[in-house]
């Protein structure tokens, strides 16, 4: 029991402490503009290099089970369909897009890497890196779909432009580019020169600390006393319902160890901060999207701890 507690605490402690530090820095020392620029640095440079380095350093014999990645894609699509049906029945039209997006979209590429090496061991980052392109592509397509379908009619874009935008976002996504660039190095076992490797390591090492600090620096202005019930429901879906369904289904299908850990990380990750940005730019309810990101980020450490503890106690990971 104590061993399980320590294991679970080690998994969430870095996330919790860095989020709290980011919140403190944003309140007392650093302007919001600093974190806005940090997000760009992480997404466009540091995290793609992190993915590239992890894959280049990886051993092809330690790649994740393809079935686990397929399961993750199917799980995301299934969650999207079920949440969309529920939203159609119970959520007001002007809030549906943000509700659905916030309920299923995981901050997989940031929180995932922090959890990976603690929960999955030394090969954990490679497992997440291999799954990242598939999660990103699936999530982006579904996100644009729900925000477009639920957009006010007078604001809707032509179908052709929507398809072009989706393809453009996929092809130009820095994380996908980072993974694609690493494939030749993995397949042909090409070693980077020492200077290049050392330089990339410096950049790679700033990715997760900066990303977590920015998570804690979410702007909470205007949110006091105005909690939306839809945000509470979406938070419960994202942090409790989906991970429970994902994990139970994966266990019943025989997933264990790294494969089950991958599913757990996907399910327990908080809502991606980009859901707020996309909701705002696509004329959905930005206030609801912001609250979902805020609540899931603040509470994810608790739910990650609980799920990690249970799986470790049952000796499934």
Task: Give a verbal description of the structure.
By secondary structure, this protein is mostly helical. It has one domain: Up-down Bundle (Na+/H+ antiporter like fold), CATH 1.20.1530.20. 79% of the residues lie in helices and 0% in strands. It has 14 helices and no strands. It has helices at residues 2-28, 32-57, 66-90, 93-104, 108-120, 124-149, 159-171, 174-187, 194-204, 207-216, 229-252, 257-268, 274-281, 286-313. Helix 1 crosses helix 10 (207-216), helix 5 (108-120) crosses helix 10 and helix 11 (229-252) runs parallel beside helix 14. The protein is globular, with a radius of gyration of 19 Å.
Number of strands: 0
Tell me the CATH architecture: Up-down Bundle
One letter per element, helices H and strands E, the order comes to HHHHHHHHHHHHHH
Distance between the termini: 15 Å
What is the level 1 CATH name? Mainly Alpha
Q: How many structural domains can be distinguished in the coordinates? A: 1
Structural class: mainly alpha
How large is the count of helical segments? Answer: 14
Global outline: globular
Arithmetic mean of pLDDT: 88
How helical, in percent, are the residues? over 70%
Low-confidence stretches: none
**Which sheet architecture does the biggest sheet show?**
none
How much of the sequence lies in strands comes to under 5%
Radius of gyration: 19 Å
CATH topology: Na+/H+ antiporter like fold
What's this entry about, in short?
The protein is an all-alpha fold.
């Amino acid at each position: 029991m104590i061993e399980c507690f320590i294991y679970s605490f080690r998994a969430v402690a870095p996330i919790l402490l860095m989020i709290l530090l980011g919140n403190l820095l944003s309140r007392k020392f650093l302007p919001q503009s600093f974190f806005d620029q940090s997000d760009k640095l992480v997404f466009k440079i540091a995290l793609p290099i992190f993915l590239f380095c992890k894959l280049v350093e990886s051993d092809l014999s330690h790649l994740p089970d393809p079935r686990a990645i397929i399961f993750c894609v199917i799980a995301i699509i299934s969650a999207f369909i079920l949440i969309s049906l529920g939203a159609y029945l119970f959520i007001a039209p002007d809030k549906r897009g943000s509700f659905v997006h916030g309920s299923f979209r995981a901050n997989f590429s940031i929180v995932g890497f922090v959890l990976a090496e603690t929960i999955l061991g030394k090969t954990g980052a490679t497992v997440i890196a291999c799954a990242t392109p598939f999660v990103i592509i699936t999530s982006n397509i579904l996100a644009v779909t729900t925000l477009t379908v639920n957009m006010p009619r007078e604001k809707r874009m032509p179908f052709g432009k929507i398809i072009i935008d989706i393809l453009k976002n996929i092809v130009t996504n820095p994380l996908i580019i980072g993974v694609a660039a690493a494939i030749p190095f993995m397949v042909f076992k090409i070693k980077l020169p020492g200077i290049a490797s050392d330089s990339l390591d410096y950049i790679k090492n700033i990715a997760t600390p900066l990303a977590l600090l920015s998570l804690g620096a979410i702007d909470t202005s205007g949110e006091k006393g105005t909690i939306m019930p839809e945000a509470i429901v979406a938070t419960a879906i994202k942090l409790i319902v989906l991970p429970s369904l994902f994990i139970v289904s994966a266990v019943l299908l025989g997933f264990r160890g790294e494969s089950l850990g991958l599913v757990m990380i996907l399910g327990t990750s908080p809502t991606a901060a980009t859901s707020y940005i996309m909701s705002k730019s696509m004329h959905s309810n930005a206030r609801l999207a912001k609250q979902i990101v805020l609540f899931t980020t603040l509470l994810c450490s608790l739910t990650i701890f609980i799920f990690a503890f249970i799986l470790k106690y049952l000796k499934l990971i």
